[in-house]
Structures are given as C-alpha cells and as structure tokens.
Design goal:
The structure is a homodimer.
Chain A: H1 5-12, H2 16-24, H3 33-46, H4 52-59, E1 64-68, H5 75-90, E2 94-98, E3 120-124, E4 141-144, E5 153-158, H6 160-171, E6 178-182, H7 188-199, E7 205-208, H8 214-228, E8 233-236, H9 239-251, E9 261-266, E10 279-282, H10 285-301, E11 309-313, E12 315-317
Parallel strand pairs in A: 1-2, 1-3, 3-4, 4-5, 5-11, 6-7, 6-8, 8-9, 9-10
Antiparallel strand pairs in A: 10-12
Helix pairs in contact in A: 1-2, 1-3, 5-10, 6-7, 8-9
Chain B binds a DNA duplex through helix 2 and helix 4.
DNA sequence: TTGTATGCGTTATCAT
DNA sequence: ATGATAACGCATACAA
C-alpha cells in the first residue's frame, strides 16, 4: 500500500495540507524550517512518492506529452521519436506515443484524443484533416511535417525546392529514362517528378510499391527491371525505398550510378553507409523536432501567444549514387 | 470545459451513478432500456468523453503500459519500441516510454518508477540491478534481454552459443588476427571472444569505441587500421558497430570479406542491404516482444500465476561478409 | 505559519 | 432498476 501525504501528516501530527505544501515547496509559501525538515525526512523514511494521477486530477496538469506519430518502424520516424524523447525527458515530462487512426477520427472536445490526457500534443506528418480544426482541442498542438492546419503552431518542411533540384540533377545529362518509385498514393514529390519529366518532353514512368518496406521494394524493383529493363535514373519517394531499390538493383548486378542513378528522400543515416552512398533530399528532422518542442513549450507556458509557424527547407545532398 | 457524467446526469434528471453504469455497461448490471438509450444519446450529443485520469484514480487501473528502454536511437531498440507499440495498441492500452536512469535509481514501493503509474512494466535490457528485486514494485514487471532478475517474469536471449559459433567460424581457416570491436565495458560477447582467441593460442586484440554510434565507429576503425594494420577478422559487439566498421574499412579500400571478415550482432535489417551483407548473431527480437507482452498480459490478468521465464536462442546468420 | 474545507471526475458500495 | 454517499490522493482558496 503506497504511502500518501495523509499518512505522513498523521505520523507527524500536522495537516496534510502542510505536507503538500512542503513537498511542492513553492517559493512564496512560508513554512517553518522545522516542519519542513520533519516532513521531508518523514517522506523519505516512509518511502513516500506522489501519486501523479491524483496530482494531475487535482492540479489540472499532467506533465505528460503526447507524440502522435505513425510508421515508427521506419528509421525516419523512429529517429523523431528519439529526438522528442530527449526533449521531453530533459524538461521533466513523460511521453506517450499514440497513433492517429484515420478510421475512428478525432474525438474532439476532450483530452481523450491522445488516449491519455496530456498537456500538449506533437503531431507528426498527420495524414489529413479531420473536419474540425486542431485548435478545438483542449490542449495545445504543434503540427510537424506535411500536414498544415492554419489554426495551430506548425513546423513544416518544404520539399518542393529540393525535389525540383533532384529532377534537374537527374535530367541534366540530357533526356533519358527517369522513373519515380513510390506507393500508389501521389504526393508533392510525385507531382514534381511528373511535371519535370513532362517538361523535358519525356513520358513519366512509375514503379509502384505496395508499401514502404525495404524487402518489398527490393523484390518489386527486381521484377520491374526484369520486365521493363532498367531506367537510367530513379527518384525514390523516400530513403527506405531507395535502399530497397539499391539492393534489388545490386541483386541483378546493376551498377550504381554507372547503370542507374539513384536519389532518395528523408536523409536517414543508413544511406551513408552503403558502398555507394545514396543521394537524398535531407529533411532537417532534428531541427524540426527541436523547434516543434520549443513551440509547444512556449505555447504551454502562454496559450495567448501569437501563432508560431515556420517552414524549413529540405536540401539536396548529392552523393555517389547519382554522380556521373 | 469538458462535459462530465454529472453534466449528463443533471441534463437527464438522473444520478451520475446511473450514467456511469450505462457508460461502463457491465453485463450484470441491469438498467432500463429507456434510460440506457437516453444516456447514450445525451452523451453523444453533449460530446462527453471519459476522463481517464479520474477513471484510473477511482478504478485503480490505468490501462497504461510503461516501456522501460534505453538507446532508442539504435535500430535494434527502435524496432522493439515498434513491436511493443503494436501489441499494446492492439490490446487497447497506451504506452509510455521511459528510460532507466541509473543515477537516480529506482523509486520502489510506488508506481512512480515509470514516471507515470501504469498497469505493467516491460523492462528491456536493464543495465543492472538496483538493490531491490523488481518484484517489490506495485505492478507486474517483465524483464527482457540481458539482465536477469529471478523474482519476475523474464524473456532472455542466450547469445553465448551463437557467439561461440562466431568465433569457431572466424577461427576455422586457422590461426589469424581476429579482433573484437566494442565499447570499453565488457560483456558476454567480449569474454567469449577473449576465451576463444586465447584457446586458439592467439592474443586478443580490442578495437575500443567510445560509443555505439556508427559515425564514431567508422572513424575509429579507420584510425585503428591506419595505425595497426588491418585484422583478418573482426567480431563486432553489435550491428551498428559492424556497419560503422564496414564503412570505415571501405573508406580505406579494404575488401570484405577478401581482406577482412566481419561479423556483427543483433540482426537488424540494415545489415542485409549493404553490397556485402554482414553476418550477424540474430536476436529473436520480434518473438521476444511477442512473448514479453504475452507474459505481461497474463500476469496482469492473474498476479498469482507461477513465474514465467524463458530463454530464447540467438542464431548465427552467416552472410557474405564472413565467407571465404 | 498552519489548518479546514472543497473540488477534480470517476468508480464502487451500499442502500432502496 | 436507481440513487446517495463514500472513496481515490492531491491541490488550493480561504480561514485562522
């Protein structure tokens, strides 16, 4: 049976209020040096530890942050989990990871959105809007990544400039077979690819993978190349795709970049450790997390703050995989 | 202002108890079809959502699981976070990630060990004991990995057999320079290496890295080889080390496995995607997580259950990096 | 400087 | 079938 402040109070013959005061030791509340010490040592000896549930219920603040994120098996998102973890811990918060389930939708007007009530939410790459603006939530939200909700704090990334650069880079040697590899669902990168290819007077060529898993991409690419021959360049939707493709191509003895140029997107560490490091559109994910946390912290401290919104630039990192 | 069961009760002219009953709708509690429906629709319309804080405080169960894990930036642990997430969510729990801070030690006798009270703890690769047995905690704990506490449920991995195999594998071609790469702190793998090398009548050779980061290992290996020449085989403490070493060796134009054989440990996906896939001691991490969750679930359902403890076997996966 | 009383939102125990 | 009332452990406005 856990010991409560009442137990301590009884033991010492004081009121539980006094104990509470000592334990929370605000600067502005005055308590005698004597009782303070007695309470402190008693708490220590009796093995007291605050019940955060009760504390949160009474105090209205949970000291808990919800990280709303999907696909944490992917290194890119896994890394973001790690970054936020660091920030959250360093600031004496706890972090609960939740996933956004598009099916159920958001349960607005309650702190239940996150499964658990929390003091703030970080939402990473939310897939789509949910009808109601995020600002309707009872706690502050900071949105990160592709999804933009004008009503809340936001740290975005602009992939367009870098993606456009990728296409110039790949088309620079002159017209050739440049393919795009990704899942069926189109996005910014997809359309930038298509536009650039069309502008170059070429036909777009899509290598569709059913999911983002490397193993899957590997075999899809193998089959694709066997059936259609190998493109001269491939722009991959993300680095996991690029790595899967890399391996699939190597399986067939195809050389990179001699036979085919490869570019990915995200900037995960793994792309640097292959024999032929892969060019990529590097997202400033560490900075995004740092800034996102900063925004949330400020917002929690002062809800009336003006909207904090920034869009960071991704940058093209050219490595061996696309050098001629 | 969130709507509470009292609000609903007032609105409908019933007691909050009734509302609570309807909402929790136990099979054995009887309530008239009429009120049931009225409460349900009112709750819907008023946008009621239960306060899990209050629910947990009153009910004694949080529906929250604590994952106690470190180094989540490493793919191996990142993956485990993902696996547990899946299990936890599928069972309608929430998951909070905590780190074990050796400095503060454990605060036993309270549910505060995890930062937040939770219904159960999964502790992955706990570094060391904390004086008190884990069974002293107020909630069930399942321990995973290297650390063994006989007093609680446990899913372990035996790396010894596989590590011994690694050494036979590497020494099979006859006596040669076989080095061990790892952090300074010795462990099972380290000692198995040392023993095997000594038994072969050779001198152990250690490549010490200050931390587990790939970038770091990469440069350490480069410097080491420049200074001492290249060993003919390297057994790496883990796959991240192996990948860092791989890249460092390739930087110097050293061929794998022609010039040096490489073996890692853990079995992360990345080792398969290099041009020369790296041999590794694969841990059954998915199975560990599955079983660990199973144990915890059972324990939470029935605390009086006999101890559940299993040790799984890691297995040596030989790939190109160590083939002659 | 310290104590009393009340509330946080819910579940649980007894009544009725 | 439903309602009063008491926990749960703590914080806090107000009183002393």
């Amino acid at each position: 049976m856990p010991v409560t402040i009442r137990d301590i109070a009884r033991q010492l013959g004081v009121s539980h209020t006094t104990v509470s005061r000592v334990l929370n030791s605000k600067q502005d509340t005055f308590i005698s040096q004597g009782t303070r010490e007695r309470v402190l040592t008693a708490a220590q000896e009796m093995g007291y530890y605050p019940n955060r549930l009760a504390r949160a219920l009474a105090g209205g603040r949970t000291h808990m942050i919800t990280l709303w994120i999907n696909e944490t098996h992917a290194p890119f998102y896994g890394r973001m989990v790690y970054y936020f973890q660091q920030h959250v811990w360093e600031n004496n918060y706890e972090m609960v990871i939740s996933a956004y389930s598009g099916e159920t939708g958001l349960l607005l007007g309650s702190s239940e959105v996150s499964g658990w009530p929390s003091d703030g939410i970080i939402a990473v790459d939310l897939l789509r809007s949910m009808g109601t603006p995020l600002s309707a939530l009872p706690m502050p939200v900071v949105t990160l990544g592709v999804f933009y909700d004008p009503s809340v704090d936001y740290v975005g990334v602009d992939l367009n400039a870098a993606a456009t650069e990728v296409m110039s880079h790949l088309l620079e040697p002159g017209p050739r077979r440049v393919a795009y590899l990704g899942i069926a669902e189109p996005d910014q990168r997809h359309s930038i690819y298509t536009r650039a290819v069309r502008e170059a007077g070429l036909e777009p060529e899509y290598i569709i993978v059913p999911n983002g898993l490397r193993a899957c991409t590997r075999s899809v690419v193998r089959d694709y190349v066997k059936a259609h021959g190998c493109p001269e360049a491939i722009f991959c939707h993300n680095d996991d795709g690029a790595i899967g493709a890399y391996r699939g191509l190597r399986d067939l003895g195809i050389r990179i970049p001699d036979d085919v140029a490869l570019v990915g997107c995200d900037g995960i560490e793994d792309t640097e450790y292959l024999d032929t490091p892969i060019s990529t559109v590097a997202q400033p994910s560490e900075e995004m997390c740092r800034l996102g946390w900063e925004y949330l912290k400020r917002r929690m401290a002062d809800p009336s703050l003006p909207l904090q919104q920034t869009v960071l630039q991704a940058r093209l990192v050219i490595r061996e995989s696309s050098r001629r």
